[in-house]
Please model this.
Amino acid sequence: MAWLQLTLESDSEGARQASELLELFGAISVSLSAVNKQLLIEQHPDQQQELWDQTQVTALLHKDTDLDVLLASLRKRLGPAPLGNQKIALLPDKDWVREYQLSQGPRLFGNRLCVCPGWCIPPDNIDYVLLLDPGLAFGSGSHVTTGLCLDWLVATNIEGKLVIDYGCGSGILAIAAALLGARHAWALDIDPQALQAATANADRNRVSDKLTIDLPDKNNLPVVDILLANILLQPLQELAARFAALVLPDGNIVLSGILASQAEECLATYATWFNMAAPVFQREWALLTGRRNCSPI
Model:
């Protein structure tokens, strides 16, 4: 069976309204993405998540969908909101699940660690295999920021170390640390869905006994050898003093989720408590690392 793909652009409110209406019209899927690669800024968890100023809406529809009625309904629903760059394409029938799975193969880090979806066979002669399927919680190893952190972990001797993964998402960094020999890792996130995903992934990789998965606002967190945080610049800056209090003298801080253009600003924030190394850049992203000094908090 063939499918119709409808794409259009609108402002944030128009995109939200359009996606709701498309679902009412029986869309198989609706995805939202930025126009012009605008970065989506993280909101406080109590606030409604904002979309990009200019958002592209892509919907997969049944072939027999009445597009004239749908587009008229969209214009009526959105009112004065802009609705531009409309495109309609006829897509041939495919096994879309299979297509997606083929695009998500095993990923190797330092020839020591393989992050492998369940539908793939990991390569031979790899020391550690982390089984993880892409899902709703961030962290599959495919994003540059996650990959930079995994590269650091496999290049570092973390045998017997205590680790915090702050903003753990799927739990990938905490699980990788456990597989690579960490004594214990704390996977922390404000999103209950992320905590559920991390718990399931820890069970699947048989490291549940080496992980504590919880909300980050606990007062009984340990002081650790390594703290990893793959989040965004603003929360990294706001949490700098707290992170410093959680890292042992000469312990490691590993920060990602930072644009290359933001690296110097983040380095300046952390220089109070850490001896920071030169950033590592990959495409538009940066990885920052440093060692805890003995300055007062």
About this structure: The longest strand covers residues 247-259. The chain has two domains: 3-93, 138-292. The CA atoms of residues 223 and 246 lie 4 Å apart.
